[in-house]
Amino acid sequence: MLPSRLAASTLGDVLGALLREGATGVLALTELDGLGDEDQRGRHLVHLVAGRPVAVRTRGARLGEILSASGRARGLDVERALASQRGRLSGEVLELSGCCTSDDVRAGLREQTRHRLERLFGLRDARLSFHAALFDGLVPHAWQRAARTAPRLSAAEFLHGRPRSRVRVPKFEDARSEALATLGVAPGASGDEIRRAYKRLVLERHPDKSRNDGERLSPTRALAKITAAYHRLTSA
Predict the structure, then answer these.
(1) Which of 43, 46, 173, 209 to pair with 123, CA 20 to 30 A apart?
(2) How far is it, in rounded angstroms, from Cα 29 to Cα 50?
């Protein structure tokens, strides 16, 4: 399991442990010391897919600002395009408006994730928690969709040269066994068997089958656990 406080380890150790486990979900860091003024305290979210960061929800440069600064898009064109954003993702709006290409957007998103993650490495202490899936209103729907389609950082991009603590974050030794038990498959199950078990469980436990909001919570948590187990087994 992860430490409850960042001060007991380092962000490099925490992210390294999640990478080794191929974790998919959200790492939440709740500031305890701030990065300056007291009003800067807050919660930061790092969305991971197979242990690799794809998006960071925290203060930092917006996508349009990054694309303009890098010369991939003209600042005036970006402002005009985003003026009619109306709830759509910035990358989608900029691409559809012709301000930049899909490759430019992906490059900008990658740079944004790196820059925002860099800021979190400056935290001295924070309360840590890991959420196995993007459920229970943890983040807005639009951000969930953006995170699912964003490019994943390579290990070198977010771990190379990072300080590590003397006591490493303990590895989740029984993570694979727990994932196998969650999906109800044998240790030697093939990829096809794992996929079939996952699809069957999703159909059985999907929250949409619940009759009201009060009945959706338990199936939602079960589906989050099933999804995390599937990603753990298929990303190894």
Answers:
(1) 173
(2) 19
Of the candidates 8, 11, 7, the one whose C-alpha atom is nearest the C-alpha of residue 163 is 11
Domains, the chain, with CATH or none: 1-172 (no CATH), 175-234 (1.10.287.110)
- Residue 13 CA to residue 159 CA, distance in Å, equals 9
Half-sphere exposure of 132 (CA within 13 A, CB side): 17
Q: Which residue has tokens 């935290």?
A: 123
**Cβ(29)–Cβ(123) below 8 Å:** yes
Angle between helices 213-234 and 191-205 (to 10 degrees): 170
Tokens 């996952």 -> residue:
198
* Cα–Cα distances in angstroms (integers) from residue 25 to residues 106, 114, 188, in the given order: 20, 18, 25
Angle, to 10 degrees, between the axis of helix 175-183 and the axis of helix 191-205?
Answer: 60
Q: What is the pLDDT of residues 103-145, one digit of tens each?
A: 887 888 888 899 989 989 988 888 898 887 654 455 556 666 6
Strand ordering across the sheet containing 126-131: 52-57, 43-49, 25-31, 126-131
For 193, the token pair is 């068997």
Quick one: 46 exposed, middle or buried, by C-beta within 10 A (0-12, 13-18, 19+)?
buried
